[in-house]
Design a protein that fits this description.
alpha/beta; six-stranded parallel β-sheet; four-stranded antiparallel β-sheet; 17 helices
Length: about 475
């Protein structure tokens, strides 16, 4: 049976997880939780990109050996998934020589193998001079720079001359373009789809897939039959999506999971996933993923987060202060799934008070108290996802789906205000409260992918025929 397979981007482990990581993990986890709630077996994978110059430079700056640094920070990321309640099933490290390296080298061999009727390999060697951004782990052309700087990191790239292996991406331009246009590779949203088509239409260039062992400082997966070279970060890191589910080591596990149903990524690495990765998979004769969900960036009080500005939001600190699910709620509801969004403590506190404390929390408390006071009998009825919420989640529109759920809270509040069960008696009152209870059950059912613990608490309490009073789900904030 094919499992639903979703991935989050493979982060560099050169620093601790930031709020953008957590946003992405929450989005991916919501989609995973949704499919699990439908009874579908789910695999959810991530890992650690450990074979990059970023990591080597961070280790050197800290005065540590690269492997010692990688071991320390990989554990930090593994622990972070647990801290943020992410239901990961597979975590694959880039330095795992037992479970990762065999699969990466197998991918290389498949790409390098001569295709029927062809005389040139898709992987070839040449000397190259280019403008290299360590932050992106990517070469740029002069035309792609903004005022001579990397458009992503706003740093001046290094001029590097090396003899490396290259992947013949240009060969697959028309095939990649057709996959995107036809939505066989479904890129969400339309803006990011069009950006990739525009990038392709400029003409795809072959890209480097290795670096010298010396430049890699001894870190990296050796190129098959050439130990003077190690694989370049993107060829290596993207392959974690394959090796996490058994590629190169467990054929049965791989067959159950691949192709991936969804890659959840940030917009800064869209071309590597929607173009480079797709070309590599086509070359290797492997199926391509079904969809790529691209999110934007988070600003703080309308400004880019920066240590120099002192506005960096520590996701661990805000969760410890306000709780996991309130932070999860804000990021999923108020950071658009496929655009940039803003976080501020003021906006968060306003959302907490309006939506959680005075919204779903107050609704549940009011109805539970009325049911207990009037000994209302509330039979438990079957529930499923509403068509609107299901459609939005299937289309990877997480923030839109959660907005629909919260509109049900407002509708139920309005229903109670109009019907005023506290002024009614007997059968008329009981009928109004039964309707409100059923609405709450429906709301809680829809909330399962977004706020699993809150949903479970509400369903447990309201899935009884005799409902008692309920402690506040979201106590008022005291600053």
């Amino acid at each position: 049976m094919k499992r639903f397979y979703i991935t989050a981007a493979i982060p560099y482990v050169n620093a601790k997880p930031h709020l953008g990581h957590v946003l992405e993990w929450f989005q991916a986890d919501t989609i995973a939780q949704y499919h699990r709630s439908l009874g579908t077996p789910v695999s959810f994978a991530c890992g650690s990109d450990e074979n990059s110059l970023k990591n080597v430079q961070a280790a050197e700056k800290a005065g540590k050996a690269p492997q010692a640094w990688l071991d320390e920070y990989a554990v930090i990321f593994e622990d972070a998934f647990k801290f943020f309640g992410i239901s990961l099933t597979h975590f694959r490290r880039g330095s795992d020589q037992t479970h990762h390296w065999p699969g990466v080298q197998e991918l290389w061999k498949l790409c390098a193998a001569l295709k029927p009727g062809e005389t040139e390999s898709d992987i070839y060697q040449k000397e190259y001079t280019g403008l290299y951004c360590v932050g992106c782990e990517s070469y740029y052309t002069t035309e792609e720079l903004i005022d001579g700087k990397c458009p992503e990191h706003l740093t001046v790239p290094e001029t590097i001359t090396e003899k490396n292996y290259f992947f013949r991406l240009s060969k697959y331009q028309s095939q990649i373009r057709e996959l995107i246009i036809s939505d066989k590779l479904y890129i969400v949203s339309e803006q990011f789809k069009n950006e990739m088509l525009g990038f392709i239409d400029q003409g795809l260039e072959d890209f480097s897939v290795s670096r010298s062992t010396a430049r890699g400082r001894g870190v990296g997966v050796p190129v098959p039959d050439d130990e003077s070279q190690v694989m370049y970060v993107w060829f290596d890191a993207l392959a974690i999506y394959l090796t996490a589910v058994g590629f190169g080591t467990d054929a049965e596990l791989f067959a159950q999971n691949w192709p991936a149903d969804v890659h959840v990524i940030g917009k800064g690495i869209n071309r590597f996933h929607s173009v480079y990765w797709i070309g590599m998979l086509i070359s290797a004769g492997l199926a391509t993923p079904a969809s790529i969900s691209v999110h934007g960036y988070i600003t703080a009080d309308g400004q880019k987060m920066s240590k120099s500005l002192g506005n960096v939001i520590d996701p661990f600190a805000v969760v410890e202060k306000y709780g996991l699910e309130p932070i999860r709620y804000y990021l999923l509801r108020y950071i658009p799934s496929h655009a940039d969004g803003d976080f501020s403590y003021e906006k968060f506190r306003d959302a907490y008070t309006a939506d959680l404390s005075n919204g779903i929390g107050n609704l549940c408390s009011r109805v539970a108290k009325l049911c207990e006071k009037n000994a209302v009998n509330t039979p438990v009825l079957p529930i499923e996802y509403t068509p609107g919420v299901a459609k939005a989640l299937e289309e990877l529109e997480v923030s839109e789906a959660l907005a629909l759920v919260m509109s049900m809270v407002s509708q139920t509040d309005q229903y109670l205000s109009e019907q005023m069960p506290w002024k009614k008696e007997g059968a008329e009152q009981a009928e109004i409260l039964r309707e409100a209870v059923q609405n709450i059950r429906v709301i809680a059912y829809q909330l399962q992918p977004f706020m699993p613990e809150t949903a479970a608490t509400i369903l447990k309490h309201f899935n009884q025929e005799q409902i008692s009073a309920l402690s506040p789900l979201f106590p008022r904030l005291v600053e």
